[in-house]
Structures are given as C-alpha cells and as structure tokens.
Amino acid sequence: MKLFTLIFTLFCLQLPAEIDITTIDDWNIFSSTENVLIISKDGSIDTRQFLGFKMEQPWCVCKNPVIALKADEELEEGSSMKATIKVDLKRPMEVLLHAWLKLDSGYTLFRPKSFPSFRGASIIEVKSEFGKEVFLSKGIDNAMKSSEYMCKSGYLFEEVQKSETAFEMEV
C-alpha cells in the first residue's frame, strides 16, 4: 500500500495543470507553455491593450515586461519609438519601446527599455505617439507572489498550441 501511495504521488506531481485565473485584484495569470506563466493587466482606456510579464520554471522570477498598444500599420517589427512611463503619478520617465511583435488585430507588443520599476505600483501610465493608456496595477505584488507560488509548486503547466505567441490573448 505504501508503494502504491508513493508511485501515485510521484505520478501526480508530473500531471500538467492548466492555469487561467483572474485574481481578486483583476490580474490575469495563465499558462502559455508547460513551464511559463503569463501575468497581465488590461488597460483601463482600451481593455485590449495590456501590460504583461512572464515567469518561468525553474527560476520563477518575473521578467520581460511587454506592453500591448494599438499601433499604426506603418510601424515595423524591430523598430523603436520614444514614450513616457509614469508610475504612481510620479515624474514620467522617458523610455524606448521596442516593437517586438505585430499582431493581426492591429496591436503591437512592445518591450520597454530602461523603464521604472513596476513593483508595488498602483497606477502605470504609458504615453506614446499612439496615445495614452493607464493600467490600474494595484495588487501587482500579490499577482507576482501568487504566480511565484504556482511556479514553485513543481507542477508542469498544460502546454498550449505552439502557433500562439506567449503574450497573444484575443487582442
């Protein structure tokens, strides 16, 4: 009986666990591959724009933030543009947004370069030549901590179709 319990426990540790939740702080946490969680917050002006970052096993560190913004068709992948990011109504910081991936929906995923810390932020405001978006980011620390617990659980996350990008979400 002990052997059966041990084998069953070890088998259960390898079962994938699909993650797709919305926290009480309105943060989205979902799995994009068997080892990657995506944490995102929808924009308050255009809910198809979002701020997101990923966490992957085994290190479980929040990294690689992206900002999805509606962009002109002329914008090319790989190009950069200047923008400002203001955190918690403090002085805006000029940043460079690198156009990482253009989506068919007309939105583009941008990777910010040299940006202010988002940790502990309640309001993140992004202004670019394409307009302004505000992310009500209160609870970001809780979302980071929750995703870290999930990441360190030892469970694999259910793998999604390889054709989708890690940050593409019905945009």
Entry summary:
The chain is 14% helix and 40% strand.
Fold and architecture overview:
This protein has helices at residues 2-13, 140-151; strands spanning 20-22, 28-33, 36-42, 50-56, 63-70, 80-87, 93-102, 107-113, 123-128, 131-136. By secondary structure, it is mainly beta. It has one domain. The chain has a ten-stranded antiparallel sheet. The relative contact order is 0.24.
Return the domain count: 1
In angstroms, what is the radius of gyration?
Answer: 18 Å
Helix content: 10-25%
Please, how many helices? 2
Low-confidence stretches: 3-15
Main sheet: which strands, in order across?
1-2-3-4-5-8-7-6-9-10
β-strand number: 10
Quote the average pLDDT: 87
What is the string of helix and strand elements?
Answer: HEEEEEEEEEEH
Q: Strand percentage, roughly?
A: 35-45%
List keywords for this structure.
single chain; disordered N terminus
SSE blueprint:
Elements: H1 2-13, E1 20-22, E2 28-33, E3 36-42, E4 50-56, E5 63-70, E6 80-87, E7 93-102, E8 107-113, E9 123-128, E10 131-136, H2 140-151
Antiparallel strand pairs: 1-2, 2-3, 3-4, 4-5, 5-8, 6-7, 6-9, 7-8, 9-10
